[in-house]
Each structure stands twice: as C-alpha cells, then as structure tokens.
Amino acid sequence: MSTIPEELSYTTSHEWVSNEDDVYTIGLTDFAQDALGDLVFVNLPQVDDEVVAGEAFADVESVKAVSDVFSPVTGVVVEVNEDLLDAPESINEDPYGAWFVRVGEVTEVGELLDAEAYAAHCEQEA
Amino acid sequence: MERKTPLYDIHVEEGGKIVPFAGYLLPVQYGTGIIAEHEAVRTKVGLFDVSHMGEVQFGGPGALATINHLFTNDYTGMPLGKVRYGVMCNERGGCIDDLIVYKFGDEEYFVVVNASNREKDVAHMRANLLPDTQFEDLSDGIAELALQGPLAKDVLAKLCDVEQLPQRYYTAVRHVEVAGIDCMVSRTGYTGEFGYELYCAPADAAALWRALREAGEEFGLIPCGLGARDTLRLEASMPLYGHEMDEDTTPLEAGLQLGVRMEKPEFIGREAILAAGKPARVRVGLVAKGRGILREHMDVYAGDTLVGHTTSGTFAPHLKQAIAMARIDVSHAGVGTELAVEVRGRRVAAEVVPMPFYRHA
Description:
Chain A is of the alpha+beta class. Chain A has one domain: CATH 2.40.50.100. Chain A is 21% helix and 40% strand. Chain B is built from eight helices and 20 strands. The interface between A and B is medium-sized, with 12 and 17 residues.
C-alpha cells in the first residue's frame, strides 16, 4: 500500500501538489515511483520556463522506460530542485521530499484530487 | 493467451511483477528492483526462471550434417559435453535466430533457441532436415533455471557434488543430481558473469527453485527478473534477437563473426553473405557523454549525417553509465569516434567504445 499524505493534493496522472502562498510545489507520488521502478535519470525545466496544466514539464527514466511528468497548473517555474539531477533515486526513497519544481504566477489549476479520492483512484489502477 | 512456466506460482509468491513476454507470463522484476537484482548477479548470485526458452534435439546419423547445414558455426569434431554458439540464417543471409548447441553424443545434439522464435525455428528446421535425421521439439518438457554470479558455485556446492559440475565455460554435464533432482547443468548464461544454467523436468522445477533459494540465502542470492536479464546482457554487450539481429541483418552486420564459419563449404545463407561482401554497417558499443539515456531505435549522427541507429540501450546499473549498441556505417564505427544520438528531439553526445562494456574478473 503506497503512502498518500492527507495535506497534499493529487492528479490522476500521479503528481502531488502543495500550495503555499500561491506557489505550487510539484512532485511524483509514492504510487508513481513504485510503478516506475528504480529511477536513473531526470530531465527538468529551467527557472522562468512556462508550464501548462495537463502538459508534460519534466520526464523521468527508470532502467526500463521513460515517463512524462505532467504539470497540474499553468504558470511560471520559480525554483527547480537541481539536486534530483544527480540523485534521481531520491524520488524512489522519499517521493514527497523529492519535489521537482515550484511554480508561481499561476493562472490555471487543473482538476485535483484530495487524498481520499486519490487513494480510490490508485486502487482502481492497481 | 499467455502461458505460464512451472514456476509461475512461485513468482507471484516471491512478489514478482508479472508481464507478458514471448508468449509467457514472467516476472520483469521482484520487490528489490532491477538495480539490486543486477548488482546481486555482478557481486553475489541471482536466480532466474528461463523456462520459456525453446529446446530441440537432433538425432541420428544425419544429425551433424543437418546442424552444419542449418547453422553458421562448424559443429564438426566437437567434444562431448561441449557447447557452441551459432546463428540460423535464411537464404538471404538474414538471421532467423541465434542459438547454442550442446553435443551429448555423436548422434545427439541439443539446441536452445529464443522463446519468441520457437515456432518459426521449428518450422524452418523441420523443412530443412537432411536424410537420416530425427528431430524433436522438447520445449514443453523442459524447465530451465539460470544461477548466475561469482558465488553460484558456492550455492551449488551445498546441493551437489561439485566434482560433477562442468568445469569450463561453455561445457555441460548431462546428469547432475542437484538437491536430489536430475539436472543437465551447463557453464553458460546471458549475464556476462560466472554462472550455470540448470535444465530439469517441469515437475521438478519448483523444488529446484526452492532448494537453490534456501541454499543461496547465506550468499545473498535473490530472484531476478527479465529486466535485470536485459540490463546484464546489454552491459556484457551480448546480442538479443530482434534488437542486434533480425531477418534483414546478416550475422556479420550484427557483429557475430565468432559464430560464423565462412570457410565451411556450405550452410543456408552462406552464398548471400559471401555475395554481400564486407559489411557496410557494423555493430558498435556507444557510451553517452552528454546527459540522457540511450534507448533502442534512436538515430545516430556524425555531425549532420545520419550514420545508423541504436539497437538496444539502457542505463547500465553496474557501470552507472548510459550505454547502447548500435548498427553504424563502417566508416564511423572506429573506437573513439564522436557521434550524437537523437534522444527524443535532443542530441546527446556519445562515443564509440570497445565491447564488451563490462567483463567479469
């Protein structure tokens, strides 16, 4: 059973989001990292890049495959967690600590699930 | 409908992530993950179910002539218990499959082929038998386990008389009693590491698996899936059918010269390979110099010129580098050549390096 913290919001494509003073922090969920397997590579956007709700802004690669990471919001990247570039395995080890980007100037927020709804969504996909 | 190997229930019980592969339901990995499984084989020992592999047997006075006709290598004068790699070609010189041949008698040759090619292989073999040759597809009556890693012999030492085990690489012993089970044991594998492959009756496979698991516990043995099997063979730059070779690629283009005896007077495909002359494209090893993971089917450039494409690629867990094998125009295939691989719209610098990428101590 994967961990799903109560205080975060989620997407159906398995990103987590937290909103603090209208800056959105985005990462991949425990369910996602478990499904992907050992991650060995991360491709991240740069500060000032625009991201669009529902569109890919980063990708992660496991030993076996590449997967896109989708943005839950439309806005501008204000901070990038460059530590992930050298330590993609931290996403496997601590998915809710290993954030990807922080996004500001948000003009649109896509459909988000609370922890309970996301848990039900994961159950369906499992 | 996918089939199950005799070990299917054990894979589920062991926490394997089951996927369809070559017509079988097999574990791609277990709970520990591909990297841990890969490292277990490189540093300790790992156990694989490879019961999906196909096995056929040629017998009778015409057996040797038939396999010399069907396969590219020369099996004449092979000692008993010897194992020899080869390729089966079509008339155009393309690869129908690659395989290994075991000699157990002057009129008894046992051949292991890829699971995904079994049906077409068997059809091609049956259609090209020379006189006085008996042929049988034994695949459904044989299970196969691979025990791979530097500590593999220590594990077997607890279950059998080590004196009976095959001592040299690419040799086999027809009957070895392992944990009381009659096994054919060979010093072969698809990992680039020291190890054995054990063939037994399907009804004995579960007991053999459990005995090896238990005996291996003190040596750090873990079960390994298809994912690690692929990264291990790629790190050892071993070719995989459908990637490094196919029916439109000759064994010479696939870099399999060691398994092709052109001096043999005849084999199917020889004329076409001769007529094609020196291959214009060859198999090379690439290591990424820039950031990115190289995968199969990616275009390879020298400057602005397309010079080939990758056939397999991954992040090599032991070397901790992005590596690939590629088929490249021979003029750009020299070791040290700087190339670029198009990784999803982005050019990643790569260099031609000697193969194998990894060689065990």
